[in-house]
Amino acid sequence: MTNERWVWGFRIALLATALASLVVVLGAFTRLADAGLGCPDWPGCYGHLTWPTTADHVEAAEALFPESPVEHDKTWPEMVHRHFAGALGLLILGLTIVTWRKASKTRTEVPRWHTVGLLVLVIIQAAFGMWTVTLKLWPQIVTAHLLGGFATLSLLWLLVQRLGPWRWVTQQHLTLQSLKPLTVLALVLVTLQIALGGWTSSNYAALACTDFPTCHGQWWPEMDVVRGFNLTQTIGPNYLGGLLEGDARTAIHMAHRFGAIVVTLTLLLLLRRLLQVRVARPMGLVLATVLAAQITLGITNVMAHLPLAIAVAHNAVGALLLLCMVTLTHRVYTAKVAIPQ
Question: Which residues does residue 215 pair with via DSSP β-bridges, in sequence order?
């Protein structure tokens, strides 16, 4: 990365990744604090660029939206999240411009279509953010919005990996090549588990089971899988607090637990293989640490009845686990053979 413009592209991508991480955490905090409808309009908040703070502004806001009284503990998380998301969108736009200008002025290969995909994705994310409010937290939209945020973060981090100097060089190249199918499978399973987590959160099913390892004192409780995973459910007047009955929420919660078991077993198998490759051992240890932290946070959420700090941390570490898998997949697919001296 000797070219100055190339270095700046890398730096912007790294900054955008950090900002996207913050946006994901703020989004989790907003959702888990039940502040998703803290502002009944979009993109402003009760007609304000920030949120109503003075008594006069609050009175005018409640006159404009009589069905949505102002709750200060919910307005600011929603708008802070929107402001940071907007800043991320502008940064990605700048990143796209930088990479395309570099591509047009030099013959250096740059991932310009990667940045275009990111720009399109962040525009779609803005639409989902609007629909989250206008459709009153419809679970399908909330889950899609969450997945879009994780996808944006992952693609930014992948861009950092592509622009950065990190590549594995090892004489155990063939062993790494044999890990490709298992690595991709693990990445897909982690992504699906995040989707299940989003569905659990958007349907308020995190506390459907308040004991562990059993649920309602049973290993196999009553579950309504059909209703719990009915993706064509009609739009209700307001999904704040959830509309599903107990058995449907239990089905969602248990699916997330079963998914965690599948992901854990798959990652343990992958870790066992990684530790056999010298250059991959540090990455394997990091992955093992993040996995252990995520399992601990998940169990704590159930046993402690979903404390806000732990729930947000569970989302954040889930994002970190996904980034570990993105990093590992990139390392495995770009590994080079070490030439013996």
Answer: 218
Asked whether the CA dihedral 295, 301, 304, 305 is positive or negative, the reply is: negative
Contacts of 132 (CB under 8 A, 6+ apart): 36, 138, 141, 142, 145
Is pLDDT above 90 for 128? yes
Secondary element (H or E) of residue 337: strand 336-337
pLDDT in tens, 98-111: 888 877 776 667 78
CB 185 within 8 A of CB 266: yes
Contact 231, 252 (CB under 8 A): no
User: What is the Cα–Cα distance from 40 to 242, expressed in whole angstroms?
Assistant: 18
Q: Are 205 and 229 in contact (CB under 8 A)?
A: no
Query: Most distant CA pair in the chain: distance in Å?
Result: 78
Cis bond upstream, residue 43 (ω within 30): yes
Alpha carbons 244 and 41: distance in angstroms, whole number = 25
- Segment 292-339, tens digit of pLDDT: 999 999 999 999 999 999 999 999 999 999 999 999 999 999 998 877
Rounded alpha-carbon distances, angstroms, from residue 53 to 13, 36, 185, 224: 35, 18, 49, 44
Residue 170 per-residue DSSP state = E
Enumerate the domain spans of the chain. 1-165, 170-341
Measure the CA–CA gap between 132 and 82, rounded to whole angstroms: 12
Token pair recorded at residue 4: 């100055």
Give catalytic residue positions. 78
Q: How far apart are CA 155 and CA 163, in angstroms?
A: 12
Kindly report the pTM of this predicted structure. Answer: 0.93
Tokens at residue 121, please? 């994705």
